[in-house]
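Predict the holo structure. Ligand: heme C.
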Amino acid sequence: MTLRLFRISGLWILQALLLAGSACARDSDVLHRPPALASAPQDKYGDLVRMGHAIVTDTLGKAGRYSGNRLSCSNCHLDAGRKPGAAPLWAAFVAYPAWRTKTDRVDTFDERVQQCFRYSLNGIPPAYGSIELTAIAAYAHFLARGLPVGPDSKGRGFPLLGKTGLDPNRDRGRVVYRQHCQNCHGEDGGGLPNMPPLWGFGSYNKGAGMANVATAATFIKANMPLGNPVLSDQQALDVAAYIDAQVRPPDPRRGLLSIFR
Ligand code: HEC
Ligand code: HEC
């Protein structure tokens, strides 16, 4: 009996040591710094990486056959997918395969990218093995160089908001929009030259992550107005609710009527 107890606690100690060891090795508190594009090698891998970068920053120009709107990946995955707190592609790359409740299955990185084509770009998912998906994966793989595999990299996704105690309100959101957003994104939300649309038929569809008020609010709070993100959590929620109330392409899973959801 005593021997058994001893053995069990011995195991615990071993486990604790292993856990501590892996925590040190992972070190998810350290912010990953993706390598500069210029350091990509001059070989086939480097060519794919550069092509992936070109698609991410000019999606309509470089992957137009799959794109259904005017957006580029980098309009949302800022700084060409490098910026922490703007769903950086390096943190995503090491986080898949992962279970997703949106699809009810374990999705690979390529499948996750296909979903952004379908919803965020309101387009057609490039086939598995297509040059576009292969290049985007190579680019994300390059950005993730040196980053340990796992779902918890610091800077992944968008930083969470606190509880504000108030529901998002689109009327208050309209005021925020006029004051903080309209100059760049336009009075009608349709964007301006070099400024992406937030709603209308040139924007993401109703099935996109950005079409979820809570998700859009976290992106906006951390990243908008571009270069000067000054909104309070409540203002971010309100303006997200205002944007969400505008018209945009339907969710392809639900058909045309979802425009009026
Ligand atoms: C309209 C904005 C928008 C555009 C354009 C967009 N995405 Fe996304 N993407 C998002 C949002 C929002 C999420 C997070 C969704 C969530 O948390 O539910 C996301 C998530 C992802 C993820 C998973 C991130 C993670 O950490 O799990 C990948 C990979 C990704 N997008 C790749 C792309 C690629 C590649 C493109 C271009 C082909 C693209 N996205 C275009 C908004 C966008
Ligand atoms: C100084 C100009 C500027 C202001 C002000 C600004 N944005 Fe943006 N916004 C941009 C640019 C430029 C991008 C694309 C970033 C890129 O491609 O690097 C963007 C991207 C976005 C996106 C993701 C892409 C899309 O079109 O859906 C959203 C959502 C967004 N902004 C919301 C807002 C909201 C809400 C406000 C006000 C709180 C705001 N922005 C204020 C310039 C601005």
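The pocket of heme C (ligand 1) is lined by residues 56, 59, 71, 73, 75-77, 87, 89, 91-92, 95, 112-113, 116-117, 120-121, 136, 156-157, 204, 208-210, 215, 219 (CB under 6 Å). The chain has two domains: 37-143, 170-260.
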